[in-house]
Amino acid sequence: MKKLVSIVIPAYNVGTEIEECLRSIQQQTYLEWEALVVNDGSKDNTAAIVEKLAAEDSRIRLINQSNAGVSSARNTGIKEAVGGYLAFLDGDDMWEPDFLDEMITAKEQDDVAMVYCGYSHLYAGGMKRKFTYPYVSGHILLDVINKKTQVHIGAILVDKSIIDSYNLHFTEGCLVAQDQEFIKNLVSLVKVKAVPKELMIYRIRTGSAIRAKWNWQKHIHGVYAFRRSAKFILEQELGHYNKTQLAYDLAAREAFNLYKLIWRMIKNGYEKEAIELMDDQENMLTMEKLDVTRLKFSHRLKCRAVKSKNKFLWWLLRYV
């Protein structure tokens, strides 16, 4: 018997895209699925469009909630899901028609808990460009941490039992990188199979977010997300990793992430805030774990400049 796939779809003001998203699911060659659209307090016609499609196809289900953010919407979907397999797709993205078939075939052939594939960027003018990192299989946590590969939340399929067993969820209130926190936690636990095809379509939106001033208070959430993930990972019994080496690699990457954030703060004129961050005791300890010998020369130079707290040196290197 074919397993049911629960597809969790957070949706907020995607009235112009949600039908195309759901049509791409309806066009799947694998038919055993449920689409759980969690309308996160949309102010446009998102809910009305989903209601219309759900009336035509009982596999589509609309769940309404007050606006609480994408993490909350995904968590709601996970709680409502009844399928043996779980997948995610944002309300403005799409899948190729053979996404589910290809992913399930690869998963069941290799008997792994999770599979992932590549994806394409879809631009406003209709141009599509493949976007892939090297495909790696097995225990891929270190590859993900060190960005030797990349796993998109809309390009995975996983046993729901894993999510339930470890109570995996998305951190609510986290403004960036909540999906990558979830993925790191997940791949630390399971063996993974890569499907070397671009089966997911990620829509590139243009608009005010691109023109807006860079906001360090938003992007620091990425540092916090990595810090939480590292803590979760090191609390697990992971016999397939050397725990000492893993702790070192996690600490080094967290330190590099923090350094990059602080350097970008300096470049964007947040010098006072950057110094306050560096003076925080936990951040001081984190920065000490940065292995500068593993960095490129330009990063070594900027890292030493950051640690110096020398504003004149910061000014000299600002445009490097």
UniProtKB/TrEMBL annotation:
Source organism, top-level taxon? Bacteria
Q: Does the record carry Transferase as a key word? A: yes
What range(s) does the Glycosyltransferase 2-like domain occupy?
6-121
Could you tell me one molecular function GO term of this UniProt entry?
A: hexosyltransferase activity
UniProt keyword annotation of Chloroplast present: no
Q: Which InterPro entries match?
A: Glyco_trans_2-like, Nucleotide-diphossugar_trans
Which CDD domains does its entry note?
Glyco_tranf_GTA_type (cd00761)
Name of the protein in question: UDP-glucose:(Glucosyl)LPS beta-1,3-glucosyltransferase
Species source reads Propionispora vibrioides
